[in-house]
Write a structure and sequence with these properties.
single chain, globular, alpha+beta, Aminopeptidase, 7-stranded mixed beta sheet, two-stranded antiparallel ribbon, 9 strands
Length: 174
């Protein structure tokens, strides 16, 4: 596997990937100490965030943004999109790996590229957002040296009134 900057030609290949995942647990407050050990089991359900090709192409052409792909078997199997945030942190706008390539180190390589990109830009760190129903991602971010900076239990209410899903904000200082 290798990482490289994405091209416009990579976008349709990424659009064909399966970035969905199965939710089997949800993190619950309080988000202190070893908070992920208290994640509660839920009736499994599939979750996906969608993929917008036009949005991804915008990352290729913008100097304040970046789109990197991880190549597996000669084609892109995952990506990370980054931007320079208003608070001078790099922001991971999205990171995704095709379901068949999870557990191969692809996400870790993408995250290492994010650290490198932020360092080259002279940014003090990286921030990202995920949700309480993406426990696997939370575990991954913690293993990559991120810390939980806070949460917002109402962020998704406008999209899904009554949702139990809360936003979790992670930071990694360089």
């Amino acid at each position: 596997m290798r990482i490289r900057p994405a091209t416009r030609e990579d976008v349709p290949v990424l659009a064909a990937c399966d970035f969905s995942f199965l939710v089997t647990r949800e993190a619950v407050p309080p988000f202190e100490g070893d908070w992920l050990t208290h994640a509660r089991p839920v009736e499994p359900y599939p979750k996906g965030y969608g993929f917008d090709p036009e949005e991804m192409e915008a990352y290729v052409a913008d100097d304040d943004k970046a789109l990197f792909v991880v190549i597996g078997d000669e084609t892109p199997v995952g990506y990370i999109s980054l931007s320079a945030g208003w608070n001078n942190f790099a922001f991971v706008d999205d990171i995704a790996v095709d379901a068949e390539w999870r557990g191969t180190g692809a996400a870790q390589r993408l995250m290492q590229q994010a650290f490198s990109w932020a360092g080259q830009k002279g940014l003090p760190g990286i921030r990202l957002e995920t949700q309480t129903n993406n426990v696997a991602a939370c575990r991954f971010y913690l293993r990559q040296g991120f810390v939980l900076g806070g949460y917002d239990r109402h962020l998704y209410e406008g999209l899904s009134p009554g949702t139990r899903e809360a936003a979790l904000f992670f930071y990694r200082f360089l």
